[in-house]
Amino acid sequence: MSDNEAPVTTRNAYQEDIIKILVATDNHIGYLERDPIRGQDSINTFKEILQLAVKHDVDMILLGGDLFHENRPSRDCLYQVMALLREYTLGDKPVQLELLSNPDDGRAEGYSFPAVNYEDPNLNVAIPVFSIHGNHDDPQGAGLQGALCALDVLSVSGLINYMGKFDLPLSSASNPNPVESDSGISIRPVLLRKGQTRLGLYGVGNVKDARMHFELRSNRVRMYMPSDKEDWFNVLVVHQNRVPHPPTPAVPEGLFDDCIDLVVWGHEHDCRIVPEPVAGRPYHITQPGSSVATSLGEGEGLEKHVALLQIHNKEFELKPLPLRTVRPFMLGDIFLAEAAEEEGFDVSDQIAVGKFLRARVNALIDQANQLWDERNAHAVEEGEEELPRMLPLVRLKVDTTNVPAMSNPIRFGQEFTGRIANPRDVLSFHRSKARSAASRTATSVDQPELSIDDPDLTTSEKLAKVRVQTLVQEYLAAQELQVLGEAGMNEAIRMFVEKDDGWAIQTHVSGALRALMKGVQENGEVDEEELDDVLVKLKEQHNQEYLEKAKMGRTGKGKGKGKASAPADSDADSMLMDVDGGEEDGSDFDEPAPPPKKKKAAPAKKAAPAKKGRGKKAVASESEEVIELDEDDDEEEDEAPPKVTKKTNRAAVLSQPAKKAPAKKTTTKAKASSSGQGTLSFAPSGRSSTRTAATRARGKMANVVEVDSD
Questions:
Q1: Is pTM beyond 0.85 here?
Q2: Active-site option among 136, 213, 269, 542
Q3: Which residue, of 63, 383, 404, 599, has the greatest Cβ tally within 10 A?
């Protein structure tokens, strides 16, 4: 097939020789699942995709990554996906695809069931699902089974067939240009046959784009192919950047093996299903795009489809199938200064500007509703049922160059509540890069020049400088924060981004505000004119205290972990296990966080050695289950644990002998009665006596810990 030749159709082939595949990518199930309007959009569309597979009687479903939007999907999200897969992919329908490759390739280590679910005699699979992972649901963690992801759970459950997972070499984990001794990337295919048609599926899960580019350019991607590979139809499934998104590079289209016939490209969200030839290469590329809009950009504005791929020998045909459950998305773009000249209103008149913008938004809503009606009319003609109208997504991008001020976009969007699905972000204000400094107003957000924007740096040097911690620190320093300290805020954002600590920012802000209020109260009555100076001094004082604590190895956060201050390596590959990469993630092997300190905890100081001993024992017991651990974990054990407070740790109390438990009740009842039946009475004697008993019980527990420590 030449470069300018269109793909050959399969209409004249025998049906028993045609392999029918439903291809979809970037489902992002769980996106905005807590949104009251858009929360079920992704799961509804995934349900429609499975229904299309049943309707068109496909032989298999092929997913190109990012099935889930989160690396750790919620229980509700995982429950719905598993229920839908069981509903539509399991059944008595015989699978027409014969597996020719080794069914144990990719099998879970230590278990006997095969990697391909329909080869398991204990399962009734009607439509097998094959999937790779993307950058959103890639394997993470360090355990006995290595790095795992949600697809591993679905795979061992017998619902999908997870392919494209491999371990990258450890020696080049943090280097985008590995050494020559590394083995590179090895891809083993899933070989299938139906009649006279033979299909080879080659899956490559998401890898850092710089690493993938290097591996392809260095010819270090090894593909295990059958000896008669020219007689097979070979499909490669990847999940990488197809176009550059600075500073992230892209993977060139022309670096794949010439034996590949079709590349299914995931990660890019704009729908380009029609096969596109690659200059100088014999293969084509299809890009199904996402099934749900995860941003309000131009690429998401295209109509959403999935692909019906039909293969006969070396010929194939791709048919786009529209998705009806996707919200219509309308995107508008205006230059406000030019529009004011054409319409004859003053850009400084907020009422006139608001009236003009409302008219544009109303026009976009009308276009979206018209598109939905056209979809329904077309579906009714094909014998399908009509769907109720969904609230559309509308985004109006407004260029405010040379406009003195603009109104609040959130307040503007409230007028469209109940008419659109995204009233809070219907307007997007921006200014052209060529605007002068005089046109900037007090309401515009500062855009500091970051270190990676240095024009003298090469691309590789910019990639080496990309660190979330550095970018956040530079940005916060340019904002001139008046209440929150830059150091603490930087650490909180880093914990939120890298450690997935959803409460890090809120905890830091609450603690910083309490500390500031306490400092202001200690200064007595403060005039309003002096309040700003007092706040600045307190902020600088707290910031300096935080930096000093950070140097001593304590971040000042109650829930923080001792190894959280280690900077994350953004060059580490997405397929690399945390334990292999040397990163101290703290998600699997950390001790429980100590309770917060209190000034009245003097009697508990003697219990500190007991807490230390317990902590070391807990870490040692967990490390016995792990085959290999880095030396970094041993260093963590040597760190001095924090002092125990008056509130005794529950684990330490539960570890005491059981015979000491009745002693608390005996002590509590001793004051109320001198009879020997105190240990047999469980009825509360009143609110006041209960509190007294609890107070004395805590004292008794503290004494128990002191005896243990001695």
A1: no
A2: 136
A3: 63
